[in-house]
Specification:
The chain is mostly helical. It has 5 helices and no strands.
């Protein structure tokens, strides 16, 4: 059996690894984007948010006397690396990347929703406040991606149809 505080600490470690994975995925995607400036700009903005989220989670972990999980962090980074390498092989990399980003943002939304409930149950106001600060950023990114998928798809299709243009990235 585990106390709410122990579960909260474990889930914060998961969140730390998740944000490490997000950073790696976003940076790899941003670096490869050449022909979709609006998407690149929003990803670059979210990279900065992600770095701030990592700081908030690190502060929570430090305050609670726990550190991040090296194994979880490494696993997250390896998964992000695999996704980045796999994306380079697809002719529709930009679309698959945007779709994967939307899915990942929704995983983050679920994780921070759980962390908020756990922090509340554990009576940890600082972690509650940190997660309540992060959650709207994740929701905003997911909403932005969903709202822009149609126009991104249209831009990709136009570029893909023209032999003079590269559509992939």
């Amino acid at each position: 059996m585990a106390t709410p505080q122990e579960n909260l600490l474990d889930w914060l470690r998961d969140a730390h690894a998740m944000e490490q994975q997000a950073e790696s995925m976003l940076k790899a995607q941003s670096k490869r984007l050449e022909h979709y400036p609006e998407l690149k700009a929003r990803i670059d903005e979210h990279i900065q948010e992600t770095l701030g989220q990592q700081e908030l989670i690190d502060e929570c972990l430090s305050r609670l006397g726990g550190g991040s999980s090296t194994i979880k962090d490494m696993t997250g980074r390896l998964m992000a690396f695999g996704q980045a390498v796999g994306g380079t092989l697809m002719s529709d990399e930009v679309i698959k990347g945007a779709m994967a980003g939307y899915v990942f943002e929704n995983v983050e939304i679920a994780a921070y929703t759980v962390l908020i409930a756990a922090a509340r149950a554990a009576g940890d106001r600082e972690t509650l406040a940190a997660c309540e600060r992060i959650l709207p950023q994740e929701i905003a990114m997911a909403e932005w991606l969903l709202a822009h998928l149609p126009e991104l798809t249209e831009a990709f299709l136009v570029r893909s149809e023209d032999p003079e243009l590269e559509a992939k990235k």
